[in-house]
Structure formats: structure tokens, C-alpha cells
Amino acid sequence: MDQQWPPLASTRVDLEQPSAARIYDWLLDGERNYAIDRRFGERAVTNCPVVKDLARCNRDFLARAVRHCARQGVTQFLDLGSGLPTAGNVHEVADSIQPRSRCVYVDSESVAVAHALIELENRGDPERHAVVQADLRDVEHVWQQALATGVLDPEQPIALITVATLHFVPPANEAPSALRGKPDAHAALQKYRELLPPDSRLIISHVTEEGVPADLLPQIRAFVRQYEDSSTPVCFRDTARITEFFGDFEVAEPGVVWLPDWHPEDRKAALPEEMLAEPARSCVLGGVARKVV
């Protein structure tokens, strides 16, 4: 068998190119990936040996950010680019703090959506958890479909999650022809910010090359270049451009920082000592912000 898990009969799977969702699953030691994704991942580890640590660091940030929002009373979550189900799913993390929390997952890849449906059937609550297949650039469609599930109340605060997602949305002038006509990442996030009700939260993590240690920079650049051969190329943004995604939202302490520096007291993942000593080795910035008005 080419894969470790059977394809779903109703799911069209493109095996001509590796997929960001399935690559991420492999980096997190998941089993919902194909040979083409594993080959990509193995080459990535050769080019950038810390890449699996980066994936774990990002996943742990997601959990910390969700717990942070839940502890502040947010009970609704909308996860854009949610990927394949794996340990520490948003609804599980949120439920650990807010047992009646609600979550809608959104992803554009059919395999990710199909397996999210199975995960929710087995371990979810249909009244509180749902999944939608859509492109996050289609803001109105995503919003309407998410609300149509009946899971989210648009009058109550929602935590919008874009973790390890926006670097797959290129600037307008770099977008491939197939994506032209859709809003770029900053335009899409502006629309989401407008749609979110007051006291909502925005959770973001994004890869950057700014400030990455000199010995690691060629490796992370080589890893990002690999995605040019996938269905989802990656783009770097600097701190200023990443911070702009939050718009006029109030950014929570400690601000937009390297992931290991974001509320390290709540960290669960075991990260390399080198990354803890020099957080810039995480290569990813993150933060959480609140809609004040």
C-alpha cells in the first residue's frame, strides 16, 4: 500500500503534489499522509533538521492560545486552515477549560475535511462541533457556511484561529493565476475582523525569516522553497506585516513574539534546549488580540 491509511471513497485525493495539511500531519508524527507527503517531509528534515520541532512548537502555541481565550470566557472557536485532526484538536483543548465550548473547523482540502468529519463523529458533539470545506479567502462564504452549521452564535465572542495558515496565502502581486481575483491575506483578515462580534479574539502564527539566527536561516529558507513544488507555496513576512493582520485589535501581552516566548508558563511540549535558550530558532511569530469595539 502507498499509504498508511485508506483513502475515503468519496474523497478526491490529488497525489500529484504534496499537501500542506498532510505534510504537517507527517511532521507531527501522524498517519494521515501519503508517500508523496512523506518524501517531502523526509527531504525537509534533511534540509532543515529542526523542522519537526518547529511543528510541535507551533502546535503547542495553538493549544496555549486556545486555553488563554477559553480562560477569558471565550467559548466559540472558528479554526481556519485547520488541517488534519491530530492530538490536541481545538475542540478538545477548549473543552478542557470550557466544557460546553463550540468549534467550527474550516479547510479547503477534501482529505482534511473528510477526516475531520470522522473525528467529530467519533469524538465530537454535533450540536457543538462542525467542519466546513472552504477557502479562507472566500470570507463571506466561510462566514455564512460556519454560521449555517448552527454551532456559532454571531452575537457572542468568537476566537478566530489562523495558526500556521496565513503564510500559505501569498501577497496579491505574488499570487498564482488560479488565485487572482481573491483577496490577499491582509484583505481577507480585514473582512474577518469586521465580521467578528465585539470582544472576539484573533489568534495568529506565521513563519518569518526576520531575526532568525544566521546558522538556521539557510535551512528554513530551503524548507520554505520546498513548498514551491507543493499545492500550497509558502511566503515569509516580517514582524510588521504579521502584526498588521491584527489591525486595530488590542494585542494581548506579551505581544507578537517568537512562539516559545508566548506565555511559556503554560507550555506543554518538550522543546529543544537550543530553542528555549534562543526562541528565534522557532522561526515563527505568534500572538493573540481582542476586538475592543
Task: Explain briefly what this protein structure is.
With 293 residues, the chain is an alpha/beta fold.
Task: Give the CATH H-level superfamily.
Answer: Vaccinia Virus protein VP39
Number of domains: 1
Rg calculated over all Cα atoms: 18 Å
Helical residues, percent: 25-40%
Mean pLDDT: 90
What's the shape?
A: globular
CATH-scheme architecture: 3-Layer(aba) Sandwich
Structural class by SSE content: alpha/beta
SSE arrangement:
Blueprint: H1 20-27, H2 35-47, H3 51-71, E1 76-80, H4 90-97, E2 102-107, H5 110-123, E3 129-133, H6 139-148, E4 159-163, H7 185-195, E5 201-207, H8 217-226, H9 239-244, E6 250-251, E7 257-258, H10 273-277, E8 284-290
Parallel strand pairs: 1-2, 1-4, 2-3, 4-5
Antiparallel strand pairs: 5-8, 6-8, 7-8
Helix pairs in contact: 1-2, 2-8, 3-4
Give a structural overview.
The structure is a single chain. With 293 residues, the chain is an alpha/beta fold. The protein has a single domain (20-290), classed as Rossmann fold (3-Layer(aba) Sandwich), CATH 3.40.50. It is built from 10 helices and 8 strands. The chain has helices at residues 20-27, 35-47, 51-71, 90-97, 110-123, 139-148, 185-195, 217-226, 239-244, 273-277, and strands at residues 76-80, 102-107, 129-133, 159-163, 201-207, 250-251, 257-258, 284-290. Strands 1, 2, 3, 4, 5, 6, 7 and 8 form an 8-stranded mixed beta sheet that branches. β2, α5 (110-123) and β3 form a beta-alpha-beta unit. The longest helix is centred in the first third of the chain and has 21 residues, at 51-71. It is globular, with a radius of gyration of 18 Å. The termini are far apart. Mean pLDDT is 90; it is low at 1-10.
